[in-house]
Amino acid sequence: MDRRSYLATGLVVALAGCTELGSSDEADAEDDPSETDDDHGSNGDDTDGETPELAGTFDDFEDLSQWEAFQGIGSIEADTDRSYAGSQSARLEPDDEGQVRVRRSLDDPIDVSDVVPGIAMTASDRGAVRIQLQDEDGDYIEYSQQVLGDMPLVRKNFGVTRIRGEPDLSEVIVLQVICWFGDDRDEALWVDDFHFVPDTDSGKVMLQFHGGYETHYTEALPILEEYDLTGTTFVPTDRIRADVAVEGDRLTRDQVGELADAGWTIGSQSARGAQLADTDAYGDDLESNITDPIDWLEDEGYDDGARFFAFPGSVYTERPYELVQEHYDLAFAGNAPAQGYAGNPHLCSLATSPDPGEATELLEWTAEWGGITSIAFYQVDDESVLTALEETASTLRDLEADGELEVITPAEMADNYVYTE
């Protein structure tokens, strides 16, 4: 089925950390996940060399009179102490049921067929945020992404995760932002810079392996070679073993070299590979933990991979995020499939550790709706993970052969699918 036909789908793949939104007709289920010709250029140009009309900032939240808390669900007010651009952001707080929904009804409908929405956001705690684009019948396409606490307002790359009814994407009349706080009713979400980025003309997929585990060589490499695919491994460079005689479960230096020889990209996941949320634990070593891998990768001859970083566990705080921004071209953290062009190249989204069955759904969803889905695996050490990886490789090969998906690398994403205004 052509993805531009906008037919409803029953596909459901839950996003980690998301909570069911309640029973309202406007958003009544858990988050879902989630044509190979020319694509937009690196600045968002379409095949005719023209940027999609809606690409860029659509609403800067300087005039909140255009927004309202839908049916009194939560509240929205200006906050002049935080902003992404301009003088203020919008602070969203939940109602007694722990939910907030704010919407803007447009005077004239907009055509979102070739763009993907996003916002700049931060929150007092980790959660999931949804953007709905509704037509006049209330049918909608929904996009999701995680938000972390204690961060500055930064743009997030949202991905398609739900379709309700048969939305007419050429006649969108309502923009809605939703967050469910559960029992944490004292929490808040700040949003700014409602924007659009170009969508891809066909689905793109990236296969990633995080943590630098030896099973990426012993188990994942043979599977990908069987299906003529390559991947990216993000390695904690301080944990790479000199050789197989050294005890441990991480890759050896020679194994990393063989992955590179097989066409894999070798990127960084910080020197130690530990999560970058509790930065006090690193002390003065925080910066070197993020930047030393660049020297190691370049010294080993993996200059291209030294451009790319994956946040361990997709968590981070302000300082490590700023360091990654400063030193890398592209970085990965998040939790959604089928994102559009990267409006923020340092928070490219991921779909992590799919179970058997979910992998096929993720790939078919991306083939139908387009966008970029980066699928990340960690340890490939049990039957379930091996089955999911085999299923991913097999389905991906078939969809690629049929022209429904294209496998890309981090370099191709950085060079071709980053949107800059």
UniProtKB/TrEMBL annotation:
Composition bias type Acidic residues, residue spans: 23-38
A Pfam family: Polysacc_deac_1
Gene3D superfamilies: Glycoside hydrolase/deacetylase
Entry coiled-coil feature ranges: none
Domain (NodB homology): residue spans on this chain: 200-324
A biological-process GO annotation: carbohydrate metabolic process
Region (Disordered): 20-56, 78-100
GO cellular component, one term: extracellular region
A GO term for molecular function: hydrolase activity, acting on carbon-nitrogen (but not peptide) bonds
CDD domains associated with the record: CE4_DAC_u1_6s
Top-rank taxon: Archaea
InterPro entries the UniProt entry points to: Glyco_hydro/deAcase_b/a-brl (IPR011330), NODB_dom (IPR002509), Polysacch_Deacetylase (IPR051398)
Keywords: Signal
Subcellular compartments: Secreted
Name of the featured protein: Polysaccharide deacetylase
Organism this protein belongs to: Natronorubrum sulfidifaciens JCM 14089
